[in-house]
Amino acid sequence: MDPNMMIQKALTEYDVCYKNRLYLPKDKVENITRSTGVPIPRNGIQVEIKDNDNSYWVNLGVEGNRYFIGRGWYNLRDARNLKAGDVIKLYWQDTKFIFSI
């Protein structure tokens, strides 16, 4: 696994609150976009997150200089009963993120 394609994050209260946004480390997202050559437009881009046999479509967006997973994040968060303090990993493989906890 290429570490430049991996995002690891300890979830914060904000990540699991009602606002339904998971903020991602800017440097890690920019490593992935640079490696894949796929830019993230202002209105975001739909990406798939695979979690074992489940698939979640989410919107990967940018707000100012911050990257986030928005629409669709709550489905994965609720399915895995994620809480602040949980450490998650998203690995970009081909055209999707592979999720692990």
UniProtKB/TrEMBL annotation:
Pfam families: B3. The keyword DNA-binding applies. PROSITE patterns: B3. The keyword Magnesium does not apply. CDD domains: B3_DNA. SMART domains: B3. Keywords: DNA-binding. One of its GO terms (molecular function) is DNA binding. This is DNA-binding pseudobarrel domain superfamily. The lineage of its organism: Eukaryota, Viridiplantae, Streptophyta, Embryophyta, Tracheophyta.
